[in-house]
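Ticket #4471: structure output looks truncated?

Reporter: J.K.
Steps to reproduce: submitted the chain below (349 residues) through the standard prediction queue, then opened the result file.
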Amino acid sequence: MSTRHNTDKLINIEEIKEAAAARAKKFKEDIQASRKSSETDDPFDVFVYDPLAIRLTTLFIRMKWSPNAVTLLSLVFGVAGAALLYPQKVGLNLLGVALIIFAAVLDCSDGQVARLCHSGTPFGRVLDGAVDMANYLAIYLALGFRLMGESFDVTPTVTLHVSWYIWIVIVLALICHSSQARKADYYRGLHLYFLKGTNDNYFARSKDLRQELASLPEGTSPFRKLYLKIYLLYTAVQEKGAKQTQHLLDKIDENGGVIPEELAERYIRESRKVIQITNTLGFNLRTYILFLLLLFGKEIFWFLFVCVVLEGLKYAMMARYEAMTGRILTEFFPEDAKRSGWRKGGAGR
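Returned output as attached by the reporter:
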């Protein structure tokens, strides 16, 4: 009797182990399926945010939430977290940091829902970017009001008194931040385009959006027209300073939108050397530098970090990508390069 009971218990334990292994395997498969690409993911996203987000993603899918609903939920937590950075109270500040991080997890989750449910749209991509900037705008405003009237010891003999001019610094930092996010998003989207061989809502071209806007039938909703105009403006600004890239995309369009396999492999091989720069311009580095500076009461220097360090990285990223694309153009389309004056390794004219 006792032996049979022990045997049944052993069988149950094995079944539990097998079920746990199956769940672990399914969990890993879900994470892999939910990613855009391991090449464009920040290591912190891969090992921290993605595993946390996939659990929420499973819940949202069961609840039949759309990716846009998850995006808007991240806005709520992001703005609430930013507001808690305003008081000079460590406890509230730490709670604000936690809410901002949770908003970032939700930001990962909305993309996972879109990819797993095949429900991603260009509008969702624009909304995601708009919410990211809204969350950061809230952070900038909270910091601005927090810093008003404060004093900081820059050196043992120099003290900085913060006054109204902080808003000039904030506006400048916001402009730099917005530009950095757009450019990083553009080159990351291009990497995915060449990697996957399809646009798949990762990026758009302004000339295509102009054609779509011009061909809208009568009776098209004003909301759709407004959305396309905003998306067109966003895309046109992204393309500035990327002339070599535009030349390369034009050549692909001339080929019916089909990317030659050898060209795609060459682009991806070269892009892998640069792609991680785009991640330094994303959420993790800039936000954790801010949290660190808040901890030491030196948050005013975050604006200097955004306007100098990250802006310098943005131009370095653009220069390397454009030089890389110039080399590819010269190699694959030598006659066109000679006729059009594309410069090998240059930024185009």
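Triage note (M.O.): checked the attachment and the full token line is present. The chain has a mean pLDDT of 84.
Status: closed, working as intended.
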